[in-house]
């Protein structure tokens, strides 16, 4: 085989070329070029039979050449395949079939991967992007001249028609040529009785290796011998390729070692730091106001499902026990979901911002069948907590999610308001309203969609909560009849019928009718359709404690017992609530040449 790459040795030396002078009746086949150099095979420049291992060559591709002389002194050694210069071929007449792997706009090249027919100039008469016609698939298939895979090339000439065909190794010759010209006149090109055929390449800035692995030539199609693919030499690996493969192997082994080491370290750290703390940058401003993960993990028995209490808007809630002095105290631990709809950082930041809030009734609900006096006490506790949030805390706090499932009872059945995931804080004197309408269906004031949340929307929700506790039912009960389905409307209807007391929880036994009716009316007053018609939480506390009499109003008073579409149908504003749940000189002659070429990457 011949290495067609060229290293410039002296000025005006052509690029590597391998030429054979044709004699009458010439026909030959080289299945392997080893030992073929001699009188018949002319090697010019630095072409050699086998390249030195590790040597580097360069080029712009290669060309099959037919010429009437070996005098290429006027050719450029670094481009134009070593057979032309910028003005073409001055001293030698040349026909070349180029396999071009560089794009030269000044030569009107169509791409950096094309096959062309050149006559006395590097500017192709015709060219096509490298491809072959697949008879099996009935279409053209693109090929890459620098793919690294051996390529077959057929050059057929008869009359004035020249056809060039390429295909992958071992493929049959396609029925359609890639490039075809019917205007090639060898008599005009070869103006002598001598003719040389061979291959040539040139140096250049683009690195590549070009090899001729086998070559069959004949003056007639009938005498063209087939190339024996089994005798073709193996393409030698270049030093850079060996080095590249070695680097790839080293990198792969290094990566595997790194991954194994990483897994071992991860396993070690996991076993040692099972309870390690994760502190994010945004936590710094809040100081040490946090429990360690380890303590909470242990308190909930590893967040056991047996300790599961329910699910809220930001995650799951578990029952736990934490030591306090010499005793243990029961706590509710919410494990925040990182993909929660509201965002963990906002939730935690707002909760910690409330570190200055101190009130005996601010803790995480819920009621069960309790006697009247305990229900009234719980209502007073929650009213007091809300009043503190609205008027006494350092900042105005709007809870925005007052409902039964956000109230808990401690061991002494004291009411504790919790779950501040939706709460907002404002400086006093500023507008405390918000633009986001959030809440739970049934507790949401009508002005939420237009005005946003305010202390008055908290009052509305508290009013519904009052009715819920007294009546022992939810704000909306789809299973009940239309008359009883909506709590606020139903309580008002009972009052209109002068049977307000009938709205109470039927499980209540010992109670004061006067107190029950007062709380029911207060619930309707707080749930007034208009915000201006609702009392403040300070007033609510006084009403519940008996320090202030309720204002006079009637079931027919404006805004009393009136529901809005928000309260009557589901809406996308609801947040989750806690739930348990191939020669001659005349025109008639022809030649056929079939070569196997190999090009590998830049």
Furnish the topology, listing elements before pairings.
Blueprint lengths: L1 E2 L13 E5 L5 E4 L11 E3 L16 E7 L26 E7 L13 E6 L6 E4 L1 E4 L4 E4 L8 E8 L2 E8 L10 E3 L4 H4 L6 E6 L7 E10 L20 H34 L20 H7 L8 E4 L3 E10 L2 E10 L7 H9 L19 H21 L3 E3 L8 E3 L5 E3 L6 E3 L21 H4 L3 H17 L15 H10 L16 H14 L10 H9 L19 H4 L21 E11 L2
Antiparallel strand pairs: 1-15, 2-4, 2-14, 3-15, 5-6, 5-14, 6-7, 7-8, 9-10, 11-12, 11-23, 12-13, 15-23, 16-17, 17-18, 19-22, 20-21
Helix pairs in contact: 5-7, 5-10, 7-9
The CATH class of the largest domain: Mainly Beta
Structural class: alpha+beta
Give the strand content: 15-25%
Shape: elongated
Number of strands: 23
Gyration radius, in Å:
47 Å
Binding site for ATP: 334
Keywords: ATP-binding, Kinase, Lectin, Membrane, Nucleotide-binding, Receptor, Serine/threonine-protein kinase, Signal, Transferase, Transmembrane, Transmembrane helix
Subcellular location: Membrane
GO cellular component, one term: membrane
Describe the structure.
With 602 residues, the protein is α+β, with helices and mostly antiparallel strands. It folds into two domains: 2-243 and 588-600, Jelly Rolls, CATH 2.60.120; 358-568, Transferase(Phosphotransferase), domain 1. The chain contains eleven helices and 23 strands. Strands 1, 3, 11, 12, 13, 15 and 23 form a seven-stranded antiparallel beta sheet that branches. Strands 4-2-14-5-6-7-8 form a seven-stranded antiparallel beta sheet, with no helix packed on it. Strands 16-17-18 form a three-stranded antiparallel beta sheet. β16 (308-311) and β17 (315-324) form a beta hairpin. α5 (372-392) runs antiparallel to α7, α5 (372-392) runs antiparallel to α10 (537-545) and α7 runs antiparallel to α9. It starts with a strand and ends with a strand.
């Amino acid at each position: 085989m011949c290495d067609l790459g060229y290293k410039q040795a002296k000025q005006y030396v052509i690029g590597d070329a391998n030429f054979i002078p044709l004699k009458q009746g010439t026909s030959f086949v080289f299945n392997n070029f080893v030992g073929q150099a001699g009188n018949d095979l002319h090697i010019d420049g630095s072409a050699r039979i086998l390249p030195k291992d590790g040597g580097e060559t360069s080029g712009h591709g290669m060309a099959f050449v037919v010429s009437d002389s070996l005098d290429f002194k006027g050719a450029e050694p670094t481009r134009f395949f070593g057979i032309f210069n910028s003005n073409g071929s001055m001293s030698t007449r040349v026909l070349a079939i180029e396999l071009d792997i560089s794009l030269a706009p000044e030569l009107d090249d169509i791409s950096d991967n094309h096959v062309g027919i050149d006559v006395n100039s590097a500017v192709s008469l015709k060219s096509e992007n490298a491809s072959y016609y697949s008879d099996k698939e009935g279409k053209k298939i693109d090929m890459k001249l620098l793919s690294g895979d051996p390529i077959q090339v057929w050059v057929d000439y008869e009359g004035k028609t020249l056809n060039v065909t390429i295909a992958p190794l071992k493929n049959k010759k396609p029925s359609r040529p890639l490039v075809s010209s019917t205007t090639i006149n060898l008599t005009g090109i070869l103006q002598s009785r001598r003719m040389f055929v061979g291959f040539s390449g040139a140096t250049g800035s683009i690195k590549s290796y070009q090899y001729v692995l086998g070559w069959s030539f004949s003056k007639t199609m009938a005498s063209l011998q087939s190339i024996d693919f089994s005798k073709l030499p193996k393409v030698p690996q270049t030093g850079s390729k060996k080095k590249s493969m070695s680097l790839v192997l080293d990198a792969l082994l290094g990566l595997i070692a790194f991954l194994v080491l990483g897994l071992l370290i991860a396993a070690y750290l996991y076993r040692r730091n099972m309870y390690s703390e994760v502190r994010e940058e945004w936590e710094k401003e809040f100081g040490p106001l946090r429990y360690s993960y380890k303590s909470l993990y242990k308190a909930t028995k590893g967040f056991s499902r047996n300790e599961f209490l329910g699910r809220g808007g930001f995650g799951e809630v578990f029952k736990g026990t934490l030591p306090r002095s010499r005793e243990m105290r029961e706590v509710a631990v919410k494990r925040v979901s990182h993909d929660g709809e509201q965002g963990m950082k906002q939730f935690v930041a707002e909760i910690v911002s409330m570190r200055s809030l101190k009130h005996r009734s601010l803790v995480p609900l819920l009621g069960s069948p309790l006697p009247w006096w305990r229900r009234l006490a719980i209502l007073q506790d929650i009213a007091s907590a809300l009043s503190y949030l609205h008027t006494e805390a350092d900042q105005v706090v709007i809870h925005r999610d007052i409902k039964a499932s956000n109230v808990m009872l401690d061991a002494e059945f004291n009411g504790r308001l919790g779950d501040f995931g939706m709460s907002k804080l404002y400086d006093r004197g500023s507008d405390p309203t918000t633009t986001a309408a959030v809440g739970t269906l049934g507790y949401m004031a009508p002005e939420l969609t237009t005005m946003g949340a305010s202390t008055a929307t908290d009052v509305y929700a508290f009013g519904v909560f009052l009715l819920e506790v007294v009546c022992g039912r939810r704000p909306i009960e789809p299973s009940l009849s239309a008359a009883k389905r909506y709590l606020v409307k139903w309580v008002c209807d009972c009052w209109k019928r002068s049977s307000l007391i009938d709205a109470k929880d039927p499980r209540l036994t010992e109670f004061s009718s006067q107190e029950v009716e007062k709380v029911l009316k207060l619930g309707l007053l707080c749930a007034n359709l208009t915000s201006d018609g609702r009392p403040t939480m300070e007033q609510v506390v006084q009403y519940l404690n008996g320090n202030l009499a309720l204002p006079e109003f009637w079931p027919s008073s404006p805004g009393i017992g009136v529901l809005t579409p928000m309260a009557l149908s589901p809406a996308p504003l609801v947040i989750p609530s806690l739930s348990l749940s191939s020669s001659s000189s005349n025109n008639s002659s022809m030649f056929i040449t079939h070569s196997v070429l190999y090009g590998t990457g830049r």
